[in-house]
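Appendix B.2, paired examples.
Example (i):
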Amino acid sequence: FEPYISGLLSLLMETFGDGRAAIRDATHQAARRMMENVSVLGAGLLVPELIRMLKENGSWRVKVGSIEWLK
């Protein structure tokens, strides 16, 4: 699972900004499940990448979704 985190992260970040509420809700659920199942090593890879993407993305929906993901 953890070797695929960066690919999943990019996909999830894109879908946080989707205009359809159902897609955003599914993204939040997937992100929550991902964080529930990631190891400490995986979290160490995930959090810095998530913060970097948060800084680079201009969409407010993506930023809010990312912040909620970090909770």
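Example (ii):
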Amino acid sequence: VREGDTVVLRVRDSGKGFVHNHGGSGIGLVSMRERATALGGRFNLTSAPGRGTTIEIHVPLDVPAMLEDAT
């Protein structure tokens, strides 16, 4: 979805949900956050037991210009 100068990827489920602790042993969520940040965006995770999970990644539309500046 485009929201102004940003593209938003939003994934939701109505599953079991979970308590998000930043000390987990996996790299999946960490990797997603790092990739969003590398593109000048942000990563949001909302989850709670019994309430499902929502992941949102917001990335600015001018990513190619930003990447050119990095080289």
